[in-house]
Amino acid sequence: MPAYEELFQSAVRRLEKAGVPEAEWDxxxxxxxxxxxSRAEYLWRKKESPKQVPPLWExxxxxxxxxxxxxxxxxxxxxxxLPFAVRxxxxxxxxxxxxxxxxxxxETDGEGKNLLDLCCGSGCIxxxxxxxxxxxxxxxxxxxTAVEVSRENAARLxxxxxxxxxxxxxxxxxxxxxxxxxxNPPYIQSAVIEGLMPEVRDYEPRMALDGAEDGLLFxxxxxxxxxxxxxxxxxxxxxxxxxxxxxxxFLLREAGFLQVEVRRDLxxxxxxxxxxxxxV
Length: 280
Ligand code: GLN
Prior knowledge:
Bound molecules: glutamine
Order of helices and strands: HHHHHEEHEHEHEEHHEHEE
Number of helices: 11
Distance between the termini: 72 Å
Structural class: alpha/beta
Oligomer: single chain
Shape: elongated
Protein backbone atom coordinates (compact mmCIF):
# COMPACT_ATOMS: atom_id res chain seq x y z
CA MET A 1 0.00 0.00 0.00
CA PRO A 2 1.53 3.39 -0.97
CA ALA A 3 2.18 5.95 1.76
CA TYR A 4 0.13 9.19 1.88
CA GLU A 5 3.17 11.07 0.64
CA GLU A 6 3.55 8.77 -2.39
CA LEU A 7 -0.12 9.12 -3.22
CA PHE A 8 0.17 12.89 -3.00
CA GLN A 9 3.35 13.10 -5.11
CA SER A 10 2.03 10.83 -7.81
CA ALA A 11 -1.18 12.87 -8.04
CA VAL A 12 0.85 16.10 -8.33
CA ARG A 13 2.91 14.60 -11.18
CA ARG A 14 -0.16 13.41 -13.06
CA LEU A 15 -1.99 16.71 -12.63
CA GLU A 16 1.06 18.70 -13.73
CA LYS A 17 1.42 16.52 -16.81
CA ALA A 18 -2.23 17.16 -17.65
CA GLY A 19 -1.58 20.93 -17.47
CA VAL A 20 -3.71 21.55 -14.36
CA PRO A 21 -2.74 25.07 -13.23
CA GLU A 22 -2.55 24.57 -9.42
CA ALA A 23 -1.51 20.90 -9.37
CA GLU A 24 -0.18 20.78 -5.79
CA TRP A 25 -3.11 22.64 -4.39
CA ASP A 26 -5.64 20.40 -6.16
CA UNK A 27 -3.77 17.19 -5.26
CA UNK A 28 -3.84 18.28 -1.64
CA UNK A 29 -7.59 18.98 -1.64
CA UNK A 30 -8.36 15.66 -3.31
CA UNK A 31 -6.16 13.79 -0.84
CA UNK A 32 -7.49 15.58 2.18
CA UNK A 33 -11.15 15.18 1.19
CA UNK A 34 -10.83 11.56 0.05
CA UNK A 35 -8.88 10.32 3.09
CA UNK A 36 -10.41 12.77 5.58
CA UNK A 37 -6.97 13.88 6.63
CA SER A 38 -6.06 17.33 7.98
CA ARG A 39 -2.87 19.18 7.09
CA ALA A 40 -1.40 18.57 10.55
CA GLU A 41 -2.23 14.87 10.43
CA TYR A 42 -0.70 14.55 6.98
CA LEU A 43 2.56 16.17 8.06
CA TRP A 44 2.68 13.84 11.04
CA ARG A 45 1.72 10.64 9.21
CA LYS A 46 2.80 11.06 5.60
CA LYS A 47 5.14 8.06 5.69
CA GLU A 48 2.26 5.83 6.78
CA SER A 49 -0.13 4.13 4.41
CA PRO A 50 -3.90 4.38 4.50
CA LYS A 51 -5.72 1.15 5.38
CA GLN A 52 -7.13 1.17 1.90
CA VAL A 53 -7.23 3.38 -1.16
CA PRO A 54 -10.89 3.92 -2.10
CA PRO A 55 -11.77 3.88 -5.83
CA LEU A 56 -12.84 7.52 -5.39
CA TRP A 57 -9.19 8.52 -5.13
CA GLU A 58 -8.25 7.25 -8.59
CA UNK A 59 -11.51 8.52 -10.03
CA UNK A 60 -10.99 12.06 -8.73
CA UNK A 61 -7.36 12.28 -9.84
CA UNK A 62 -8.25 10.92 -13.28
CA UNK A 63 -11.19 13.29 -13.73
CA UNK A 64 -9.16 16.29 -12.57
CA UNK A 65 -6.53 15.33 -15.20
CA UNK A 66 -9.38 15.55 -17.72
CA UNK A 67 -9.86 19.09 -16.38
CA UNK A 68 -13.14 18.52 -14.58
CA UNK A 69 -13.26 21.43 -12.08
CA UNK A 70 -12.14 20.53 -8.57
CA UNK A 71 -15.34 21.91 -7.02
CA UNK A 72 -17.47 19.48 -9.06
CA UNK A 73 -15.29 16.55 -7.95
CA UNK A 74 -15.56 17.54 -4.29
CA UNK A 75 -19.22 18.55 -4.62
CA UNK A 76 -18.64 21.65 -2.58
CA UNK A 77 -16.85 24.98 -2.53
CA UNK A 78 -16.53 27.96 -0.24
CA UNK A 79 -17.98 31.41 -0.86
CA UNK A 80 -17.91 34.27 1.67
CA UNK A 81 -16.58 31.72 4.15
CA LEU A 82 -19.71 29.56 3.78
CA PRO A 83 -19.90 26.05 2.29
CA PHE A 84 -21.93 25.75 -0.93
CA ALA A 85 -22.88 22.49 -2.62
CA VAL A 86 -22.14 22.55 -6.35
CA ARG A 87 -22.50 20.08 -9.16
CA UNK A 88 -22.37 20.10 -12.95
CA UNK A 89 -25.19 22.33 -14.19
CA UNK A 90 -24.46 25.24 -11.84
CA UNK A 91 -21.69 27.79 -12.21
CA UNK A 92 -19.02 27.36 -9.55
CA UNK A 93 -18.96 30.40 -7.21
CA UNK A 94 -15.97 32.66 -7.96
CA UNK A 95 -14.03 34.62 -5.42
CA UNK A 96 -14.41 37.71 -7.65
CA UNK A 97 -18.13 37.63 -6.94
CA UNK A 98 -17.48 38.29 -3.25
CA UNK A 99 -16.78 41.90 -4.34
CA UNK A 100 -20.50 42.24 -5.12
CA UNK A 101 -21.63 40.70 -1.82
CA UNK A 102 -19.26 42.87 0.20
CA UNK A 103 -20.49 46.04 -1.52
CA UNK A 104 -24.12 45.21 -0.73
CA UNK A 105 -23.24 44.45 2.92
CA UNK A 106 -21.42 47.77 3.21
CA GLU A 107 -24.34 49.81 1.90
CA THR A 108 -27.43 48.12 3.33
CA ASP A 109 -28.38 46.51 6.62
CA GLY A 110 -30.57 43.65 5.43
CA GLU A 111 -32.81 43.30 8.51
CA GLY A 112 -36.39 43.60 7.30
CA LYS A 113 -35.26 44.25 3.70
CA ASN A 114 -36.24 42.24 0.63
CA LEU A 115 -33.56 41.09 -1.76
CA LEU A 116 -33.83 39.43 -5.16
CA ASP A 117 -31.02 37.35 -6.72
CA LEU A 118 -31.64 36.83 -10.43
CA CYS A 119 -29.82 33.97 -12.22
CA CYS A 120 -28.95 32.60 -8.79
CA GLY A 121 -27.06 29.42 -9.88
CA SER A 122 -25.88 27.70 -6.68
CA GLY A 123 -27.55 30.50 -4.70
CA CYS A 124 -24.20 31.78 -3.43
CA ILE A 125 -24.97 35.51 -3.73
CA UNK A 126 -28.54 35.59 -2.43
CA UNK A 127 -28.00 33.03 0.31
CA UNK A 128 -24.78 34.58 1.64
CA UNK A 129 -26.59 37.93 1.80
CA UNK A 130 -29.48 36.29 3.65
CA UNK A 131 -27.08 34.58 6.03
CA UNK A 132 -24.56 37.39 6.60
CA UNK A 133 -26.74 40.46 6.00
CA UNK A 134 -30.11 39.31 7.36
CA UNK A 135 -31.98 39.96 4.08
CA UNK A 136 -35.29 38.27 3.23
CA UNK A 137 -34.08 36.61 0.06
CA UNK A 138 -35.92 35.64 -3.11
CA UNK A 139 -33.87 33.68 -5.64
CA UNK A 140 -34.67 32.88 -9.23
CA UNK A 141 -33.08 30.90 -12.05
CA UNK A 142 -34.23 29.38 -15.31
CA UNK A 143 -32.30 26.13 -14.79
CA UNK A 144 -33.72 23.06 -13.00
CA THR A 145 -30.34 22.20 -11.51
CA ALA A 146 -29.78 25.74 -10.22
CA VAL A 147 -33.16 25.75 -8.48
CA GLU A 148 -32.49 22.32 -6.93
CA VAL A 149 -28.97 23.20 -5.77
CA SER A 150 -30.10 26.58 -4.40
CA ARG A 151 -32.85 24.86 -2.38
CA GLU A 152 -30.32 22.37 -1.06
CA ASN A 153 -27.93 25.18 -0.10
CA ALA A 154 -30.67 27.20 1.58
CA ALA A 155 -31.55 24.18 3.71
CA ARG A 156 -27.93 23.41 4.56
CA LEU A 157 -27.23 27.01 5.58
CA UNK A 158 -30.51 27.29 7.46
CA UNK A 159 -31.62 30.29 5.36
CA UNK A 160 -35.19 31.26 4.81
CA UNK A 161 -35.35 31.92 1.09
CA UNK A 162 -38.06 31.70 -1.53
CA UNK A 163 -36.75 30.14 -4.71
CA UNK A 164 -38.55 30.39 -8.07
CA UNK A 165 -37.84 28.91 -11.46
CA UNK A 166 -38.21 31.17 -14.47
CA UNK A 167 -36.66 33.57 -16.95
CA UNK A 168 -35.46 36.66 -15.04
CA UNK A 169 -38.56 38.26 -13.44
CA UNK A 170 -41.13 36.07 -15.24
CA UNK A 171 -41.83 33.61 -12.38
CA UNK A 172 -42.08 36.18 -9.57
CA UNK A 173 -45.47 36.83 -7.98
CA UNK A 174 -46.82 40.18 -9.15
CA UNK A 175 -46.71 42.92 -6.54
CA UNK A 176 -43.39 41.93 -4.90
CA UNK A 177 -41.00 44.85 -4.40
CA UNK A 178 -37.32 44.66 -3.48
CA UNK A 179 -34.95 46.96 -1.65
CA UNK A 180 -32.01 45.35 -3.40
CA UNK A 181 -31.67 43.35 -6.63
CA UNK A 182 -28.43 41.48 -7.34
CA UNK A 183 -27.40 39.43 -10.33
CA ASN A 184 -24.42 37.68 -11.86
CA PRO A 185 -26.01 36.99 -15.24
CA PRO A 186 -24.36 35.20 -18.16
CA TYR A 187 -22.07 37.85 -19.65
CA ILE A 188 -19.47 36.23 -21.87
CA GLN A 189 -19.64 37.00 -25.60
CA SER A 190 -20.70 33.81 -27.39
CA ALA A 191 -17.61 33.81 -29.62
CA VAL A 192 -15.23 34.13 -26.65
CA ILE A 193 -16.44 30.98 -24.89
CA GLU A 194 -14.40 28.61 -27.09
CA GLY A 195 -11.21 30.32 -25.91
CA LEU A 196 -11.87 29.92 -22.17
CA MET A 197 -9.95 27.46 -20.00
CA PRO A 198 -11.08 23.83 -20.44
CA GLU A 199 -12.60 23.65 -16.94
CA VAL A 200 -15.03 26.44 -17.83
CA ARG A 201 -15.49 25.76 -21.55
CA ASP A 202 -16.03 22.01 -21.31
CA TYR A 203 -17.71 21.54 -17.94
CA GLU A 204 -19.51 24.64 -16.68
CA PRO A 205 -23.02 25.33 -17.94
CA ARG A 206 -22.98 27.36 -21.14
CA MET A 207 -26.35 28.74 -20.11
CA ALA A 208 -24.68 30.46 -17.13
CA LEU A 209 -21.93 32.00 -19.26
CA ASP A 210 -23.31 32.98 -22.66
CA GLY A 211 -24.41 36.61 -22.79
CA ALA A 212 -25.14 36.41 -26.56
CA GLU A 213 -23.20 38.10 -29.33
CA ASP A 214 -22.05 41.19 -27.44
CA GLY A 215 -22.32 39.72 -23.91
CA LEU A 216 -24.85 42.36 -22.91
CA LEU A 217 -28.18 40.63 -23.52
CA PHE A 218 -29.07 40.13 -19.85
CA UNK A 219 -27.93 43.59 -18.77
CA UNK A 220 -30.26 45.15 -21.35
CA UNK A 221 -33.17 43.04 -20.16
CA UNK A 222 -32.44 43.63 -16.46
CA UNK A 223 -31.89 47.38 -16.93
CA UNK A 224 -35.25 47.65 -18.70
CA UNK A 225 -37.23 45.72 -16.07
CA UNK A 226 -35.51 46.11 -12.69
CA UNK A 227 -36.87 49.60 -11.93
CA UNK A 228 -40.43 48.28 -11.75
CA UNK A 229 -39.43 45.68 -9.12
CA UNK A 230 -37.47 48.04 -6.88
CA UNK A 231 -38.83 50.24 -4.11
CA UNK A 232 -38.12 53.99 -4.42
CA UNK A 233 -34.40 54.41 -3.64
CA UNK A 234 -33.84 50.66 -4.24
CA UNK A 235 -30.45 49.42 -5.40
CA UNK A 236 -29.29 47.21 -8.24
CA UNK A 237 -25.89 45.45 -8.20
CA UNK A 238 -24.64 43.55 -11.24
CA UNK A 239 -21.49 41.53 -11.72
CA UNK A 240 -19.78 42.45 -15.00
CA UNK A 241 -16.84 41.23 -17.08
CA UNK A 242 -13.45 42.99 -17.05
CA UNK A 243 -14.30 44.73 -20.36
CA UNK A 244 -17.84 45.83 -19.46
CA UNK A 245 -16.95 48.67 -17.08
CA UNK A 246 -18.26 51.27 -19.54
CA UNK A 247 -21.01 49.53 -21.47
CA UNK A 248 -23.05 48.30 -18.49
CA UNK A 249 -22.95 51.63 -16.56
CA PHE A 250 -24.07 53.29 -19.80
CA LEU A 251 -27.06 50.91 -20.04
CA LEU A 252 -28.03 51.61 -16.43
CA ARG A 253 -27.81 55.39 -16.81
CA GLU A 254 -29.82 55.20 -20.01
CA ALA A 255 -32.50 53.24 -18.12
CA GLY A 256 -32.69 56.06 -15.55
CA PHE A 257 -30.57 54.64 -12.71
CA LEU A 258 -28.76 57.18 -10.53
CA GLN A 259 -25.45 56.97 -8.63
CA VAL A 260 -24.12 54.49 -11.16
CA GLU A 261 -20.67 53.37 -10.02
CA VAL A 262 -18.21 50.58 -10.78
CA ARG A 263 -16.09 48.60 -8.35
CA ARG A 264 -12.98 46.55 -9.08
CA ASP A 265 -12.16 43.10 -7.70
CA LEU A 266 -8.97 42.12 -5.84
CA UNK A 267 -7.23 41.56 -9.17
CA UNK A 268 -7.98 45.18 -10.14
CA UNK A 269 -10.53 44.28 -12.86
CA UNK A 270 -13.87 46.09 -13.09
CA UNK A 271 -16.26 43.59 -11.55
CA UNK A 272 -19.48 45.14 -10.21
CA UNK A 273 -21.82 47.97 -11.24
CA UNK A 274 -24.30 49.55 -8.84
CA UNK A 275 -27.21 51.81 -9.67
CA UNK A 276 -29.96 53.34 -7.52
CA UNK A 277 -33.53 54.12 -8.55
CA UNK A 278 -34.91 57.55 -7.81
CA UNK A 279 -36.61 57.83 -4.42
CA VAL A 280 -39.42 60.05 -5.65
N1 GLN B 1 -16.80 35.05 -14.24
C1 GLN B 1 -17.22 33.92 -14.99
C2 GLN B 1 -16.06 33.38 -15.80
O1 GLN B 1 -15.03 33.97 -15.86
C3 GLN B 1 -18.38 34.29 -15.90
C4 GLN B 1 -19.62 34.34 -15.14
C5 GLN B 1 -20.77 34.86 -15.92
O2 GLN B 1 -20.90 34.80 -17.15
N2 GLN B 1 -21.64 35.36 -15.16
O3 GLN B 1 -16.12 32.30 -16.34
